[in-house]
């Protein structure tokens, strides 16, 4: 297992060979708790929700991860200095939609479009902890020739999700991938935004399709009706494929948009190009909270907001964002591995 606190997962060059202990076919709650349960790491089942592991560090920040589908349904960090100073960061709907979802779509050889693939189930491979201020769960699954690990870590002021894709086959595999987080905002559309993408180029683009999506790819890029004459300064989003440079420091996410921020693919084929920022901040002005999103391994940032479409999905507002490789696929050559990660951290305290 990767070193815990320094989060050196992405720096380790050669992978240390790990002895893979294959878990029993369908581990029961008791066996999961026996094998992996420890202070701060608790397995539970309730109703028709898949078996879930809940991580809780000493200052009470917590996270819930559904095992079979790898879906993070809740992240409640401590954000205020009062006893019960926790806020739910994620927007999650019934049926494991929203939250934080890892998307890995294998692309078909000829067209580089999504190839149909059986959705493999995740199992727990390992857990780790450093006293109780850092907790980590590693899930694993095999998909075709790909051996995939998903490492979810919780710290007092941050959480991290990292993916390691190893190609055990004989052919290169192209994947489109993203770690998409749905941030929740209490009702206030105009108070939601991101900061830190100024100077970065972007284009309108749908998200990769995913079992965790709230808006489908086609729904995401459908333009919303003009909010009308009271909305001074509103402009429709540009057409897919048209690159623009972000020139305002804060992107207000009141209206509907679906964008990929990165250097354009043409630009990226050059030796020197300006890459997307490695971090940016999600602003929840209604609650006065900021969350920093850090990108590692991935070359692109996906960002979308539902605008008035959010009304269809309950009272609260939400956005979807995270590191991605959508426009240019990641190629994993035989015997090689690829690593990518996202960290969400805050210093609201
Ligand atoms: C992977 O994608 C690249 C273009 O991005 C293409 O040249 C290559 O043929 C693809 N490889 C496979 C195995 O699909
Ligand atoms: C929503 O956010 C805007 C911008 O921060 C603020 O001016 C307004 O008061 C907020 N409205 C509510 C109901 O919180
Ligand atoms: C490690 C850490 O940040 N711990 C903090 C958790 O929250 C309590 C307040 O309830 C702080 O006292 C700790 O410093």
From TrEMBL:
SUPFAM superfamilies: Galactose mutarotase-like
One MF term in the entry's GO annotations: glucose-6-phosphate 1-epimerase activity
Membrane-traversing stretches: none
Keyword Signal found: yes
UniProt KW Signal keyword: yes
Keywords: Signal
Coiled-coil annotated spans: none
Stretch forming the signal peptide: 1-15
A Gene Ontology term for the protein's cellular component: cytoplasm
Gene Ontology biological process: carbohydrate metabolic process
Protein name as it appears in the record: Photosynthetic NDH subunit of subcomplex B 2, chloroplastic
Organism field: Erythranthe guttata (Yellow monkey flower)
């Amino acid at each position: 297992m990767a070193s815990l606190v320094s989060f050196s997962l992405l720096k380790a060059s050669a992978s240390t060979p790990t002895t893979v202990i294959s878990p029993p076919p369908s581990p029961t709650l008791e066996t999961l708790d026996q094998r992996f349960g420890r202070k701060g790491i608790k397995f539970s089942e309730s109703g028709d929700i898949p078996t879930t592991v809940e991580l809780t560090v000493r200052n009470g920040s917590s996270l819930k991860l559904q095992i079979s589908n790898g879906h993070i349904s809740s992240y409640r960090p401590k954000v205020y200095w009062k006893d019960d100073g926790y806020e739910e960061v994620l927007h999650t709907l019934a049926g494991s939609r929203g939250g934080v979802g890892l998307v890995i779509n294998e692309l078909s050889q000829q067209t580089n479009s999504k190839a149909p693939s059986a959705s493999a189930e995740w199992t727990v491979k390992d857990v780790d902890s450093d006293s109780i201020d850092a907790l980590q769960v590693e899930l694993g699954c095999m998909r075709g020739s790909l051996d995939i690990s998903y490492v979810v870590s919780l710290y007092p002021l941050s959480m991290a999700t990292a993916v390691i894709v190893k190609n055990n086959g004989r052919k290169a595999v192209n994947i489109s991938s993203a770690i998409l987080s749905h941030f929740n905002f209490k009702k206030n559309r105009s108070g939601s935004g991101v900061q830190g993408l100024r100077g970065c180029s972007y284009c309108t683009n749908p998200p990769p399709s995913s079992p965790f999506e709230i808006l489908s790819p086609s729904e995401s890029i459908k333009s919303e009706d003009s909010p009308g004459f009271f909305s001074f300064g509103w402009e429709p989003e540009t057409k897919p494929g048209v690159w623009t440079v972000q020139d305002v420091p804060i992107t207000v996410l009141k209206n509907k948009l679906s964008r990929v921020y990165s250097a354009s693919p043409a630009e990226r084929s050059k030796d020197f190009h300006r890459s997307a920022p490695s971090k940016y901040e999600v602003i929840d002005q209604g609650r006065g909270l900021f969350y920093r999103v850090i990108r590692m391994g991935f070359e692109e940032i996906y960002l979308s907001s539902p605008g008035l479409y959010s009304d269809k999905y309950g009272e609260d507002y939400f956005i979807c964002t995270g590191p991605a490789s959508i426009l240019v696929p990641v190629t994993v050559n035989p015997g090689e591995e690829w690593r990518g990660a996202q960290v969400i951290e805050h210093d609201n305290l």
